[in-house]
Amino acid sequence: MDSHRTAHVVVGIDDSLCGLQALRWAVAEARARSLPLKAVRVWQPGPSGLYPTLQNQHEEEATAASQLVRRLFAEIMGGVPQDVRVETVAVPDATGPALVRLAREDDLLVIGTGRRRFWRRRRLSRTARYCVSRANCPVLVVPPPALAREASQKALLRELRRDIDRFAGDRPAR
To answer: How high is the mean pLDDT of the chain?
Structure first.
């Protein structure tokens, strides 16, 4: 282990309800432990014909990852927290292997469980299982928020559209 390396709270970034919940927990843990937060956005490399070089694709994905992190922080916390140092990392790989590779022995890896379907309630997502079984550091597995447990995202969007239509007077409530 590198004696000059600072420990981090490492979190995988995505814009699902479970991903947002994991980000909230990661920020809370970074604050509580006075550690920097490493926000990791993993992306799957596309067909090589779309970009002249892999470097161009990596630069575009890194920019997109940074924008996504800023957008998510704005949506859930009003902006990037000033009291936590945030580092954004974009990695071309599968999610589980990338997170395990980036999280070192002295880090804390924070991951969401993924959306739970009624027939898989007792099982973790594939990424969560991979990280728990292979990480060399503590792994905090964050359950989905109550909102995600109560209804699917599609059902929530349908309900939101109905409410908007009803309040706008376009259509009567169903």
So the answer is: 81
